[in-house]
Amino acid sequence: MTRVTRSTSLKWASVAISVALWQPAHGAFLEDSKASISARTFYYNNDNRDGGADQRETAQGFRLDYLSGFTDGTVGFGLDAQALLGVPLDGGKGHHPNNNSFIPSDTDGSAVSSWSRAAVNGKVRFSQTEFHYGGGLSPNLPILVPTDSRLLPQTFEGGILTSKEINNLTVVAGQIEHVTGRASSNHTGLAVAGATEESNQFRFAGGDWKVTPNLMLQYYYANLEDYYQQHFGGLIHVLPLGAGQSFKTDLRYFKSSSDGANGDPGYRFNNNGGYAKHPGEIDNTTWSAMFTYTLGGNSLMLGHQRVSDDGGFVWANQGSLPNEGAAGAAFYLFTDSMINQFARAGENTTFGQYSYDFAGLGVPGLKTSIAYLQGRDIKSLTGAADQSEWERDMRIDYVIQSGALKGFGATLRHGVYRGSDTGIADQDQTRLIFNYTYSFM
Q: pLDDT tier at 386 (50, 70, 90 boundaries)?
């Protein structure tokens, strides 16, 4: 099934390329094209405070992106292409875990010498509606968030339709069939944490409605076949309070339920390692509320999140699939933090963050932040007393604003996680990242 779906994707991408090249070459297809190459150097240090194996690795990533314009005419055709390469620089002897979390592992468990992948997307535009199909998709939607938290980004294969025919309303629909993990050259189907069987059908639809310039309402529906159905509702409102001041409200609500074979062997959800009323099955309601006050370069964010008692929050997560390096996934909640997710049954999480932009002090491009999350009332798998956990994350970002190295950026992140009998190892984690993108079209 995987090979058939993959062939279909490449077939349609090839059709789009052929049609695009058949159109007049002097059209916007070439004039509006963009191309860039990005380099990312990444040092990753995970210190396991519970006595387990530590991880210290450095790698170099390269990313080539080409985005065409659309051919002239009522219906425009185009194509996008992407190539990715990862090269380990130093695994630190004995510090490469065989879990594909940062650098893929070879057959003997050691780090591979390099890994790469490439993808092409065909695209069609009619009026204010676009359809993209191929293997290099990066949809950023409340029900599906690609992760770019390591060396190479996670990418998806399938088709996405985006329409803006109605003023202030963006409608999105599509189907995702495969995903390639951040530390892999190979694609898989989709699944959830703990499951070992793939699903090649993740269907979704929804939209963003800009009610006023300062208010947006959202609704999305998603169905990962044989795993879950999920409804999302969101509200984002920004209240101006005067020069350089604002108050932002961001509300998010998810309702998830079991679908098809979920709960059967191979399709069981591990509920993020926590309690479930019906083990292996998906049954969850989660809401988050975040409020941010901004004054000049200062930003103070406070919020709370509640995961229902019957089971953990669920998102597309292929980390348990065998042998394909699909570890690592992201989701649209404020608690998707540097180390942990705070997404198990019963968990009440209070979180806050302070950020500062130094542009007001004459240092544009320099930003810093510190965040803290405290999770309580986590339901225990064994029936013992409820558990708790906390995490503190700090980061500094700097991007050069002018000169020969304009756009060169550096990020330093440090996170500390501690849990009380949660089954998750206490960790201190440090990441040092250098990014540079050069656009040549």
A: confident
Average pLDDT over residues 36-44: 97
3-state secondary structure of 360: helix
In degrees and rounded to multiples of 5, residue 223 shows phi and psi of: -135, 110
Beta strands 387-399 and 215-224 are unpaired
User: What letter represents residue 421's amino acid?
Assistant: D
CB of 45 within 8 A of CB of 58?
A: no
Q: In the predicted model, is pLDDT for residue 276 greater than 90?
A: yes
Domain ranges across the chain: 2-439
- 407-430 residues labelled b (16+ CB within 10 A) or e (exposed): bbbebebbbbbbbeebebbbbbbe
- Phi/psi of residue 102, nearest 5 degrees: -135, -55
Burial class (CB in 10 A: 0-12, 13-18, 19+), 25: exposed
7 falls in which pLDDT band (50, 70, 90)?
A: very low
Q: Using CA atoms, how far apart are residues 336 and 352, in angstroms rounded to an integer? A: 13
Check the CA dihedral 424-55-318-122 and report its sign: positive
Which tens digit of pLDDT belongs to each residue from 403-440?
A: 989 999 999 999 999 998 777 889 999 999 999 999 98
H or E segment at 18? helix 2-22
Q: Which two tokens stand for residue 320?
A: 């348990």
Tell me how crowded residue 121 is: count the other CB atoms within 10 A of its CB.
Answer: 27
Residue in 355, 395, 348, 397 with CA at minimum distance from that of residue 373: 348
207 C-beta neighbours (distance < 10 Å), count:
17
Pick one of 1.20.120.790, 3.30.70.20, 2.40.160.10, 2.40.10.240 as the CATH number of 2-439: 2.40.160.10
CA atoms within 13 A on the CB side of 309: 3
Instruction: Report the 10 Å Cβ neighbour count for 107.
Output: 7
Rounded Cα distance between 11 and 20, Å, is 14
What is the 3-class SS of 233-285, one letter each residue? EEEEEEEEEECCEEEEEEEEEEEEEECCCCCCCCCCECHHHCCCCCCECCEEE
Alpha carbon separation from 220 to 173, 217, 233, 234, 257 (Å, rounded) = 9, 11, 7, 9, 15
* Host H or E run for residue 306: strand 298-307
State the DSSP H helix or E strand holding residue 31, giving kind and residue range, or none if neither. helix 28-31
Q: Which of 13, 314, 42 is nearest to 153 (CA)?
A: 42
pLDDT in tens, 280-332: 999 999 999 999 999 999 999 999 999 999 999 999 999 888 767 777 899 99
Mean pLDDT of the region 55-65: 95
